Amino acid sequence: MENLSLGGAAILSNIAIPRGEYLALKITFPTQAGAIEVELAPVRWVKEHSFGVEFIRMAPDAQQRLKQYLALLEGATSDAA
Predict the structure, then answer these.
(1) 10, 18, 38, 61: which could form a disulfide with 25 (CB 3.0–4.6 Å)?
(2) pLDDT in tens, 42-70
(3) DSSP readout, 18-70?
(4) 3-class secondary structure, 15
């Protein structure tokens, strides 16, 4: 997974997923126990070996955990610069 944001992500994959397909995702982070569940994530674009999804339905607690993880990443990036 790359380009992770509150709104979605790019997923690297050798599996061809068609544009418009709807997925449910479980995302695990090394700094958090348990997976973050995205209940509904349509595929918005497809390229060779990757595709992009939009997060359109996830529980408020899952969204909060994602915000916390992104803030942690942003802080780590700022510290490295």
Answers:
(1) 38
(2) 999 999 999 999 999 999 999 999 999 89
(3) -TT-EEEEEE--TTSSSPEEEEEEEEEEEETTEEEEE--B--HHHHHHHHHHH
(4) coil
